[in-house]
């Protein structure tokens, strides 16, 4: 097969991890006889510097006409004081909205050899396999008004948490469809004891549940969910939640797998190309030092192969290779506690590449 992939390296460690992920794609291409064509475009702070726009039109056009998009990360201290529309993060929010990527899948599992190294007890994390389904184009990130204002002569600011029925229906339905082919359980996470938007969310989740007799639905308040994720993550199969709750819970959940540098994601729409992106950010503290863990981005490529190209075997070959690389003992710095030696970003990828073969399946 021949596929065109738009690369959006972005800022900080973004370019480093995207480069590593394309090496993995190239190896898959060789082993399985596919051709991956890349086109690279600017997003985030890099795009602000070049085009005074965190999402130039040319970038969006390239993305629209590609088969899939691979994003590194955006943002960094350099742009933190820029006005809202020129912030790197705005570029990411805009592209998610433009491409209607309402569904962000953030799977959380643990590689075999990391079970005993987790900061959480082995018996709590062993065999973890849960999926966070994060709503990605609504809620506080996009609600209007979102602005500074004057309240009683005082400086104030407002952000708006609003959801339409259709927005809730489609993401909750997606969660149920995924649960049907997984463990058959949906946990809808909200703050219905306080927020009206959460009460609508809960009501609609109950309605959607009627369409899926083989899937059980439970509700959990988000503060409790944050605690339960660490106390007993095995109770969860699919968690579905609004944009900001999903953002926070997924960073927390990454520590069940061992590091923020391990968690991949797929941002999907009803039709058209999706963005495959690690859940982590641009990590300015380690950028340019060869310290970044490339595995979240490499696993995002595995999600791309599975969801965008229906290349199940190829996707599994990558996940198997990551498992074997970690089994062989290599660790990037984020995975090292104590005095074990860490390998570089490139060395980690080299080890993954070593284990990628068609015959692994
Ligand atoms: N999707 C994205 O583009 C995205 C996501 C989150 C944050 N950001 C942006 O990134 C910038 C930094 O934010 P932050 O520091 O809060 O979050 P971050 O995710 O960039 O980093 C948090 C911590 O995790 C570490 N880390 C992250 N990814 C890693 C990796 N692959 N390997 C090893 N360690 C890794 C970092 O070194 C840092 O200590 C901000 O500008 C923020 O807006 C972007
Ligand atoms: C950079 C930021 C806008 C983004 C988000 O909050 O969605 C990031 O944290 C993520 O998780 O992808
Ligand atoms: Mg985040």
TrEMBL record:
<feature type="site" description="Important for catalysis">
    <location>
        <position position="141"/>
    </location>
</feature>
<feature type="binding site">
    <location>
        <position position="96"/>
    </location>
    <ligand>
        <name>substrate</name>
    </ligand>
</feature>
<comment type="pathway">
    <text>Amino-acid biosynthesis; L-leucine biosynthesis; L-leucine from 3-methyl-2-oxobutanoate: step 3/4.</text>
</comment>
<keyword id="KW-0100">Branched-chain amino acid biosynthesis</keyword>
<feature type="domain" description="Isopropylmalate dehydrogenase-like">
    <location>
        <begin position="4"/>
        <end position="352"/>
    </location>
</feature>
<keyword id="KW-0560">Oxidoreductase</keyword>
<keyword id="KW-0460">Magnesium</keyword>
<keyword id="KW-0464">Manganese</keyword>
<comment type="function">
    <text>Catalyzes the oxidation of 3-carboxy-2-hydroxy-4-methylpentanoate (3-isopropylmalate) to 3-carboxy-4-methyl-2-oxopentanoate. The product decarboxylates to 4-methyl-2 oxopentanoate.</text>
</comment>
<feature type="binding site">
    <location>
        <begin position="76"/>
        <end position="89"/>
    </location>
    <ligand>
        <name>NAD(+)</name>
    </ligand>
</feature>
<keyword id="KW-0479">Metal-binding</keyword>
<feature type="binding site">
    <location>
        <position position="251"/>
    </location>
    <ligand>
        <name>Mg(2+)</name>
    </ligand>
</feature>
<feature type="binding site">
    <location>
        <position position="223"/>
    </location>
    <ligand>
        <name>substrate</name>
    </ligand>
</feature>
<dbReference type="InterPro" id="IPR004429">
    <property type="entry name" value="Isopropylmalate_DH"/>
</dbReference>
<comment type="similarity">
    <text>Belongs to the isocitrate and isopropylmalate dehydrogenases family. LeuB type 1 subfamily.</text>
</comment>
<dbReference type="Pfam" id="PF00180">
    <property type="entry name" value="Iso_dh"/>
</dbReference>
<feature type="site" description="Important for catalysis">
    <location>
        <position position="191"/>
    </location>
</feature>
<feature type="binding site">
    <location>
        <position position="106"/>
    </location>
    <ligand>
        <name>substrate</name>
    </ligand>
</feature>
<protein>
    <recommendedName>
        <fullName>3-isopropylmalate dehydrogenase</fullName>
        <ecNumber>1.1.1.85</ecNumber>
    </recommendedName>
</protein>
<comment type="subunit">
    <text>Homodimer.</text>
</comment>
<keyword id="KW-0520">NAD</keyword>
<dbReference type="GO" id="GO:0003862">
    <property type="term" value="F:3-isopropylmalate dehydrogenase activity"/>
</dbReference>
<feature type="binding site">
    <location>
        <position position="247"/>
    </location>
    <ligand>
        <name>Mg(2+)</name>
    </ligand>
</feature>
<feature type="binding site">
    <location>
        <position position="223"/>
    </location>
    <ligand>
        <name>Mg(2+)</name>
    </ligand>
</feature>
<feature type="binding site">
    <location>
        <begin position="281"/>
        <end position="293"/>
    </location>
    <ligand>
        <name>NAD(+)</name>
    </ligand>
</feature>
<dbReference type="InterPro" id="IPR024084">
    <property type="entry name" value="IsoPropMal-DH-like_dom"/>
</dbReference>
<feature type="binding site">
    <location>
        <position position="134"/>
    </location>
    <ligand>
        <name>substrate</name>
    </ligand>
</feature>
<dbReference type="InterPro" id="IPR019818">
    <property type="entry name" value="IsoCit/isopropylmalate_DH_CS"/>
</dbReference>
<keyword id="KW-0432">Leucine biosynthesis</keyword>
<keyword id="KW-0963">Cytoplasm</keyword>
<keyword id="KW-0028">Amino-acid biosynthesis</keyword>
């Amino acid at each position: 097969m021949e596929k065109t992939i738009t690369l959006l390296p972005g800022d900080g460690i973004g370019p480093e991890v995207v480069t590593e992920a394309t090496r993995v794609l190239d190896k898959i291409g060789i082993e399985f006889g596919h051709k991956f064509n890349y086109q690279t475009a600017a997003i985030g702070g890099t795009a602000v510097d070049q085009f005074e726009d965190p999402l130039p039109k040319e970038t969006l056009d390239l993305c629209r006409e590609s088969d899939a998009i691979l994003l590194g990360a955006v943002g960094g201290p350099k742009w933190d004081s820029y006005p809202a529309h020129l912030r790197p993060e705005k570029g990411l929010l805009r592209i998610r909205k433009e491409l209607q990527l309402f569904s962000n899948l953030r799977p959380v599992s643990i590689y075999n050899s990391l079970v005993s190294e987790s900061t959480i007890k082995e018996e709590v994390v062993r065999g973890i396999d849960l999926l966070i389904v994060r709503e990605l184009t609504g809620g506080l990130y996009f609600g209007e008004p979102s602005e500074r204002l004057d309240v009683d002569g005082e400086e104030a600011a407002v952000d708006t948490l609003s959801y339409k029925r259709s927005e809730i229906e489609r993401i909750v339905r997606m969660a149920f469809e995924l649960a049907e082919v997984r463990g058959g359980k949906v946990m809808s996470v909200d703050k219905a004891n306080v927020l009206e938007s959460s009460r609508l969310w809960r009501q609609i989740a109950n309605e959607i549940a009627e369409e899926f007799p083989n899937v059980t639905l439970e509700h959990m308040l988000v503060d409790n969910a944050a605690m339960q994720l660490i106390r007993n993550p095995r109770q969860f199969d699919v968690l579905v939640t609004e944009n900001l709750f999903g953002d926070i819970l997924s960073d927390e959940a990454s520590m069940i797998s061992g590091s923020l540098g391990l968690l991949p994601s797929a941002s999907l729409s009803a039709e058209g190309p999706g963005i495959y992106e690690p859940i982590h950010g641009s990590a300015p503290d380690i950028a340019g030092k060869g310290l970044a863990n490339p595995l979240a981005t490499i696993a995002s490529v595995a999600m791309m192969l599975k969801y965008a190209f229906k290349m199940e075997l190829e996707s599994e070959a990558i996940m198997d290779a990551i498992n074997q690389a970690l089994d062989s003992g290599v660790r990037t710095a984020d995975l090292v506690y104590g005095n074990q030696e860490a390998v570089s970003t490139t060395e980690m990828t080299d080890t993954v590449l070593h284990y990628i073969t068609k015959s692994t399946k």
